[in-house]
Amino acid sequence: MLDFLLTSDAIMALLTLTFLEIILGIDNIVFISIAANKLPEHQQSKATTIGLIMAMVQRIILLFFVSFLIGLKEPFYIIELTWLHIAISWQAVILFVGGLFLIYKSTSEIHEKVEMPLNDENALKGRKIKSLTHAITQILLIDFIFSVDSILTAVGMTNGLHPNHNYTLVLMIIAVVISIAVMIGFANPIRKFINEHPSMQLLGLAFLILIGFMLITEAAHLSHAKLFGNEVGAIPKGYLYFAIAFSLFVEFLNFRIQKKRK
What we know:
Blueprint: H1 2-5, H2 8-36, H3 41-70, E1 77-80, E2 84-88, H4 90-115, H5 119-125, H6 132-158, H7 165-196, H8 199-222, E3 226-227, E4 230-231, H9 237-261
Antiparallel strand pairs: 1-2, 2-3, 3-4
Helix pairs in contact: 2-6, 2-7, 2-8, 3-6, 3-7, 4-6, 4-8, 6-8, 8-9
């Protein structure tokens, strides 16, 4: 286990996944803050911390559930046509549907942030919160919605890293725990940074489109899909790491240029 966690692939996956989990968690922090701010001042930080810790537990439970489904590799239905061959398994179904969901969610989120900023925040502000229990319940419901793309991102980044799926499950749990710990400790500075540099969140959503596409091709590869006699291959994760690292480097240069102009 330790040998796997110390490999370059596992470390790169952990760093990239933790970064994406934090970026994806920004909206979560915004909604949690709005819900907590409706409570008396002495309960606000308590609601935020409890909400995030319970959100972490909720995500880990979801990881176990999704990992169980992905472990079902045996095909249950085979499509055999003259131009198409697919051996469908639950693993492939989860990855394919997850990839479509990430592409849809990311595209709609980008559209919403560009065309209708603060739309969801204003809707949440209109709701009444009467007690700490009510606030935490609402925080958990909000986090469940945000957890789906977070879990699918984790699956996309770690799938195929190791033959033993339990190893990649541990890697995903570590990334979730680190990201939640960072959000608990630095929620306000992170929010402030993203508010000053909203392009970072759009960049994170753009990465999700790449991960969604990678999940779809991975599903086709694991189904041994053949289209007109040509088998669909898996996309090496190194391409994804390079795209993310290059984009972040360009964004860093952009920050420096903007800072000098100011």
